[in-house]
Give the backbone structure.
Amino acid sequence: MNTKMTKPNIVVLTGAGISAESGIKTFRDNDGLWENHRIEEVATPEAFHANPDLVYRFYNARRTQLQQASVKPNAGHKALSKLEAHIGKNLLLVTQNVDDLHERGGSQNVVHMHGELKSARCGDSGKRFEWLDDFDGTTACPCCGRNTLRPDIVWFGEMPMHMDSIYDALAMADIFISIGTSGNVYPAAGFVQVAKEAGAFTIEANLAFGATNALFDESRQGLATEVVPKLVDDLIAQFN
Ligand code: OAD
């Protein structure tokens, strides 16, 4: 990309690849299994209905792991907060990740379209509560006192969060950047097409290019901790 712009509108989409070097397993690398269950078997409303204990345990384990001292934001997360510091509110960071490593890396304008691990939701009212400990079907919900709490995660078949603000930002985007996502899960995998139709320059940064790579104007291959800081420096160098 070689267009001089002052404070372009940028939408960044991140996936599991940006957190891989922080010690959080991606979904489709490795064997894609958890305790011999396919991820899809624990990440659906049907799975929660059929075997709630299994689903609570899965997310409790991930919440515990996220709070281990060894799990920290890496150079990729930090580079994105540096980019935000340069262009401010013109950057929207959309993440499919349910970890909080972007926030811990300094990013502020972040939306979690697939929910958040450190949060619990009342299955009746939809109210969300910050939640750092384990919870299950015996935990009283703070809003109704009943056992209605569920992980605050968007499961397969459910509507992702913040879609209006994401599509508004995509419609205004000058640059769309996708980082560390395999491009298999919609609607996130379709954002590149929407951004392109809005006239954005599109960039993919990934270890192995995703399913939608043909739609990107520029592709950078490598580890997020190496590729993202370089990409951010190259972008900042182009802004006046
Ligand atoms: P995937 O596991 O499908 O893809 C991870 C991507 O990260 C792949 O393209 C890898 O090549 C890349 N990758 C791995 N290590 C990397 C590294 N160190 N640096 C850069 N890239 C690396 O994860 P997502 O695309 O995020 O949804 O998955 C999308 C959604 O599917 C998730 O949000 C989740 C899942 O099911 C829900 O839970 C609703």
User: Anything to note?
Assistant: Residues 15-17, 20-21, 26-29, 39, 43, 96, 114, 154, 180-182, 184-185, 206-208, 210, 223-224 surround 2'-O-acetyl adenosine-5-diphosphoribose (CB under 6 Å). Residues 183 and 189 are 5 Å apart (CA to CA). The first strand starts at residue 10 and ends at 14. The chain has a mean pLDDT of 94.
